[in-house]
Amino acid sequence: MNISFTGINNVVATYTKYKPNIFTKAEMYAFFGNITDDTSGSDKSDFYDAIKKGGYYYERSCTKDAFPDSFFIQVIKEKGDSLKIPQHVSFILNNCRIPMNNDKTLPIFSYIGKTLLKLHDMTENADLKKLTADADKLLMDEILKYLKR
User: Fold this and answer.
1) The whole model's pTM is what?
2) Phi and psi for 26 in degrees, rounded to 5?
3) Which residue among 54, 79, 96, 117 is buried most deeply as judged by most CB within 10 Å?
4) Percent of the residues in the chain that have a pLDDT greater than 90, as a whole number
5) Residue 73: C-alpha distances to residues 108, 109, 114, 148, 149 (Å)
């Protein structure tokens, strides 16, 4: 589905189930869109500020693609099937895995959450609302787990 907003344009969202290996099943939520700064917001600046706060590695890795004015957010929930593999949630921004293992990456997760909420609030499309709400819930659950450590 393609939806356009001020500051965030040409949004494409998808949900898929797949088997990453013989032991697990996974669900993936993916959101792609173009970002700009405009009179109603600073989506592009917010993106670069969050990446910069994460450190040089993320600043370099999350912006190296051929689409510097775009975001590609993937939220992957991997469910363990065999061998008692525990459930795991991964977050990928512009093909760069962002681990939730230190405070430096929290601004990146904040950006992802704000973007998902903005997509949710600015659309009338019920499918996109559900996808963004489900992905945001996974994000919030993982942030709470990290903060409780």
Assistant:
1) 0.86
2) -140, 155
3) 54
4) 52
5) 11, 11, 12, 25, 25
Distance CA 96, CA 32 (A): 14
Strand, coil or helix: 52: helix
Vertex 58, ends 54 and 62: CA angle to 5°?
Answer: 130
- pLDDT band (50, 70, 90) for residue 15: very high
Question: Encoding tokens for residue 123?
Answer: 């659309």
Tell me: pLDDT of 1 over 70: no
Residue 120 in tokens: 């949710």
The residue to which tokens 């689409």 are assigned: 67
Q: Give the list of residues 6+ apart from residue 116 with CB closer than 8 angstroms, or none.
A: 31, 73, 132, 135, 136, 139
Single-letter amino acid code for the residue at 88: H
The answer to whether the CB of 128 falls within 8 A of the CB of 17 is no
- The label of the residue with tokens 């700009």 reads 36
pLDDT score at 18: 87
